[in-house]
């Protein structure tokens, strides 16, 4: 779904297979010095979702060596946290997974390549799971709608055969012990640790409502410095 923003900034927006998740691909301005792009613009986000991005309560900056796998991670709901992610260095295979019980797309997933040389942003509603493989030394930056404590983060196995994610079961991949020991989606549902679809949007609407009252901030088009 392409759209033309102010100042000639071209943005392609695509709804992902996970209900409520979107990919935003901006026009990239390039010259001999490098490039400039805006992976998040409020006017584009508002046009698609009907509201502004949440006030940012936390920003996470994760650096991963080539061959690192993280995920599938999700935040317990409550408290829940929506996120807006982009790759600020390197390149990663990024997988969005719907782990919200009761969602119309429960168990659906989609893989994307996030690349710092071709910037894009991924919006994930509260309760949505994500995983990624660092295809080279990579930095992923997440903007969060709420503080995310380590004890609120749960994991489902990236190697769950029923999910069939495009991540090789390779012993040379760099993974945490928690991620290697993560249970399947079915087992996580049986244990009652998965977010439910109904409360997930509420965790996001509360900060969004506060932002809507203050009105959207003006967002200029990217200008090469």
From TrEMBL:
Stretches assigned to coiled coil: none
Family classification: Belongs to the dTDP-4-dehydrorhamnose 3,5-epimerase family.
GO BP terms in the entry: dTDP-rhamnose biosynthetic process; polysaccharide biosynthetic process
Enzyme class, UniProt record, top EC level: isomerase
Protein name per Swiss-Prot or TrEMBL: dTDP-4-dehydro-6-deoxyglucose 3-epimerase
The organism of origin for this protein: Streptomyces fradiae ATCC 10745 = DSM 40063
Region (Disordered): 197-225
Keyword Acetylation assigned: no
UniProt keywords, alphabetically: Isomerase
EC number(s) per entry: 5.1.3.27
Single annotated GO MF: dTDP-4-dehydrorhamnose 3,5-epimerase activity
Keyword Isomerase: yes
């Amino acid at each position: 779904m392409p759209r033309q923003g102010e100042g000639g900034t071209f943005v392609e927006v695509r709804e992902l297979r996970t209900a409520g998740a979107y990919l935003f691909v901006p026009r990239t301005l390039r010259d001999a010095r490098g490039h400039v792009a805006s992976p998040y613009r409020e006017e584009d986000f508002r046009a698609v979702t009907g509201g502004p991005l949440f006030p940012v309560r936390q920003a996470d900056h994760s650096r991963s060596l080539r061959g690192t796998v993280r995920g599938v991670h999700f935040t317990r709901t409550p408290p829940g946290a929506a996120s807006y992610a982009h790759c600020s260095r390197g390149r990663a295979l990024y997988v969005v997974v719907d782990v919200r019980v009761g969602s119309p797309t429960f168990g659906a997933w989609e893989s994307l390549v996030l690349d710092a040389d071709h910037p894009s942003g991924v919006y994930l509603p509260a309760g949505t799971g994500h995983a990624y493989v660092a295809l080279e030394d990579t930095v992923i930056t997440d903007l969060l709608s709420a503080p995310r404590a380590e004890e609120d983060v749960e994991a489902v196995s990236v190697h769950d055969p029923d999910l069939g994610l495009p991540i090789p079961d390779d012993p040379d991949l760099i993974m945490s012990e928690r991620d290697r020991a993560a249970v399947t989606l079915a087992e996580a549902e049986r244990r009652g640790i998965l977010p439910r679809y109904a409360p997930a949007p509420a965790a996001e609407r509360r900060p969004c409502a506060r932002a809507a009252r203050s009105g959207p901030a003006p967002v200029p088009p990217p200008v090469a410095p």
